[in-house]
Amino acid sequence: GAMLLARHVTLAVRGAARPFLATARGAQTRVAAVVPRCNHGGAGGIAVSLGPSRNAPTALSLGRFARRAAVSYAAGTDAPTAEELKAAADAVAAAGAKVKALKAAGATNSDEAVVAGVATLKELMAELAALEVAAGVTPPPAPEKPKSAQQKKGGGKNQQKKGGGGGNSKGSDAEGAGTSSAEEVKALRMAKVAQLRDAGAEPFAYRFDRTHSATQLQSIHEDLADGAEVEGTVEAVCGRVKARRVFGKLAFLSLEDDGGSIQLYCDKKRIDAAEPGAFKRIVDLVDMGDIVGARGTVKRTEKGELSIAVDSFEMLTKSLLPLPDKFKGLTDVEMRYRQRYVDLIANPEVRDTFRARAGIVSGIRRFLDDRAFMEMETPVLESRAGGADAKPFNTFHNALGMNLTLRIATELHLKRLVVGGFERVYEMGRIFRNEGISTRHNPEFTSVEVYQAYADVSDMLELTEEMICYCCERANGGALKIQYGDELIDLGQRPWRRAPMNDLVKEAAGVDVMGDFAGDLAGAKAAAESALRALGDKESMSGIPGVQQAPSVGHVLNEMFEATVETKLRQPTFVLDHPKEISPLAKPHRAKPGVTERFELFIVGRELANSFSELTDPVDQRERLESQIETHRVAQEAARAAAEAKGKAALAEYEADVYPIAMDEDFVTALEYGMPPTAGMGLGVDRLVMLLTNSASIRDVIAFPLLKSQD
């Protein structure tokens, strides 16, 4: 009976040790003693202990199992209590629940946290089994699992030896059983950094000279036959390890650089011939996420994978933190934005979006440069915000003792340059507005503003259409039909639709605001509100408060447009002839009273560009700005009164949102020196990139969008 009990305990101990032995780089363990003994009462018993062999490395750590490396009990006196059995069973259940939670969150068996969790679960199960044996409890036998189709066809270990499937324990990048957090993984990798330095290697290299990128090699050798190798030419490649598999004396690393990927084919015999022990260092010290360099000849494996048959290998940068799961990538949207660097590593399509953005930005510049526009730079810090009606960010200059704002537009300084004699100017740069965040708005964004002397709004309309088509062709291989969500947007149907704002509102709501109610604000409000209620949909009803508070007929028209038309403009549409009251910097229309020579471009329901024939009359400009300032003051007084009526919380919210606008006397002075007839246009670069890359949120096309602090 004692020998049978010894056999059960030995098997349990070996089962618990198995996941640790797999990561101990060849270390062997042995049952140090299975010997009969007697307790003080004379009953027979056994003692079982597990210890390292004489050849095992002294740094071998087996986690909790090591802390119980000497398992010793005697029948009767050392039998575990019921409480101890329950505690062990609860620990097994908790470990199992942790693994299930990880998988429910999207992790897979190759994820480091899952590998660690499974290893811990196996250890606890083995300990529970040993306790049950000691207590005389015989657990039910585990049901035999049916063989999978792969196993029936020779899968499993044999399949691994042939280089297929999931590989052995090293192939899954398990960095040590029992690791369950990034901090523990970091500690393991820091230990590898020390080992590299002890071996005379620098884990954070200074440089590496490569011969070709992965994409170049794929192109050069696209006709290389399966199983063939290019002799006599040594290539040097470098990049990040995105996958690793180890099968005995062979290791395969998937290497990814800026443009593509290539496999590193590591043969122990070949690598160790040049540097003994080099293969073991690759197996032991290289993890997913490391940046490495390798030299060798190009070969295509029998399975058709273009590879570098490695002769020499260098660690260029040791990664200290684990990458996200290779199958799921980084899926937490908030974390993608906060740790964009990890997002770029894990999701190649994100890199493609920013490559497209770079091409669109350079395309805008090339388009304008080719048409003799000169790129200028205007101040980001201003004494007063101007060029738009938006709340600015405020700051303070210590040396000058000045209150300053970050610019909310580049318009007024670019117009000063036109006054000074530059006939074609533009600026692409960051704009800052202290306003809300949404899928279409970020507090800092990129715009391009263009000004052309001796031109009017019709010239800018043609330029805008041509420039967007030019950028679209660059970003989409010459195509002018693009997919956005589930819509097909056709930019090739030119000229794009052009319609006055009043006509679009009349078509959508049946109200001719500018035709029937010119000068009749009360009548315009009543007709507009009645029409919105008749439409009855949520978007229309949301426009009623804006109509009720509108200070002019022009504002009523604008509120109606936003409530009934704007989001429905899916295909490219130029909206023309905006009311004078909402366009303080535009020339009055030369043929239509009450409106200006202005357009806004809408695609997929979003404003993309804004343009007008610039107001050059300094007297009219002063009057328009004064009117805008007064309208703004009255609106804010009304908002304050409403907030006071609601209580302290509403008043505090109002105080946080309120901002003044002031006359830019210097700009009016510049106009008094004389500005030639000029047309201007501003375009939101981020929104254009969203459209051309099929991105739903502006944060998908800004590398580092502003996010709420986690503190």
Low-pLDDT stretches: 1-77, 148-174
Radius of gyration: 36 Å
- What is the end-to-end distance? 62 Å
The global form is elongated
Quaternary structure type: single chain
- Overall pLDDT confidence: 84
Count of beta strands:
21
Biggest sheet: strands side by side, in what order? Answer: 9-13-14-21-20-19-18-17
Task: Kindly estimate the percentage of residues that lie in beta strands according to DSSP.
Answer: 15-25%
Structural description of this entry:
Helix content is 41%, strand content 20%. The radius of gyration is 36 Å and the shape is elongated. The protein has an eight-stranded mixed sheet with strand order 9-13-14-21-20-19-18-17, sandwiched between helices. Strands 4-5-6-8-7 form a five-stranded mixed barrel. It has 25 helices and 21 strands. It starts with a helix and ends in an 18-residue tail after the last helix. The longest helix has 29 residues, at 618-646.
Give me some keywords for this one.
alpha+beta; 8-stranded mixed β-sheet; 711 residues
Present the secondary structure layout.
Elements: H1 2-22, E1 29-38, E2 44-52, H2 63-67, E3 72-73, H3 82-104, H4 112-134, H5 149-152, H6 156-161, H7 182-198, H8 214-220, E4 235-247, E5 250-256, E6 261-267, H9 268-274, H10 278-285, E7 291-300, E8 306-317, H11 333-338, H12 340-346, H13 348-369, E9 374-375, E10 381-382, E11 394-397, E12 402-406, H14 411-419, E13 424-432, E14 444-453, H15 457-475, E15 481-484, E16 487-490, E17 497-500, H16 501-509, H17 513-516, H18 521-535, H19 538-541, H20 544-548, H21 553-564, E18 573-576, E19 598-603, E20 606-613, H22 618-646, H23 648-657, H24 665-673, E21 678-684, H25 685-693
Parallel strand pairs: 6-8, 9-13, 17-18
Antiparallel strand pairs: 1-2, 2-3, 4-5, 4-7, 5-6, 7-8, 10-12, 11-12, 13-14, 14-21, 15-16, 18-19, 19-20, 20-21
